[in-house]
Amino acid sequence: MASGTLDTPAGTAPTTLAGPNGNGRAVIPARTLRTDNWRKAPILTVVLLTAWILYAVVRAFMQKWYWVEDYHYLTPFYSPCVSNGCEGDSSLFGRFIPDIPIFPFAVLTLPFLGLFRLTCYYYRRAYYRSYWGSPPACAVPDLHKSYQGESRMPGILQNSHRYFFYAAVLLSIVNTIDAILAFHSPGGFGIGLGTIILVINVILLWAYTVSCHSCRHIVGGRLRHFSKHPVRYRAWGFVSKLNTKHMELAWTTLGTLVVTDFYVMAVAAGWISDLRIVG
Ligand code: FES
Hints:
The protein is mainly alpha-helical. 45% of the residues lie in helices and 6% in strands.
């Protein structure tokens, strides 16, 4: 291939490269040479993410059907429950937020969880492509004329992701406590379908959190010699394996959060009875 030109399929116009030294983007008459259904992924992302956000907002502000006193099931959307309106034993860390409609009962933690996902490297790719069209897909031009990246405001704020990771670790610990407390029945110890759902949800939340790119860097970054840090090397290897599944975990945990919340809501509202295994 000659410098400054690009091989193209038969029948398409000759392609040249723009920019200094011919190293810029390909200039072709067609908007893209992709012939597959590349619109499917961004459209699906918009539909699923929008539906999830609507569900989460409605549930966070609903302020009911979040707690099952008999079995100590607390939905993750209300954990930790810190409002004066929290029912029964749902409030593990005390009640100190006024019970008013504009404050979700987990008002202290939901913003951190939201920002953890918003600044996540995977979600950034997903919503930049799908909501912003920047770019909509690989080898498809950006919908915007200019591109400022994440080196200026407001994009530079995405670099705070590491700090939301620390918050997410703390909140995963809280969710773990919730799942342990769900081994409960009115007589003492108990296990129900809700317990299992809460446990599966928290395991997957840990997997998503630990597979975070920032976590991988915190665990194994800035080391000159892995051989001198065998424990960190092993931890880095583990996180790296999980990291390859980060996208899948991002979506799976959105699903398990909804399933967990919906199950707790259905039992709390009396729509269904919890399937009891023990107690
Ligand atoms: S990169 Fe996705 S949670 Fe950190």
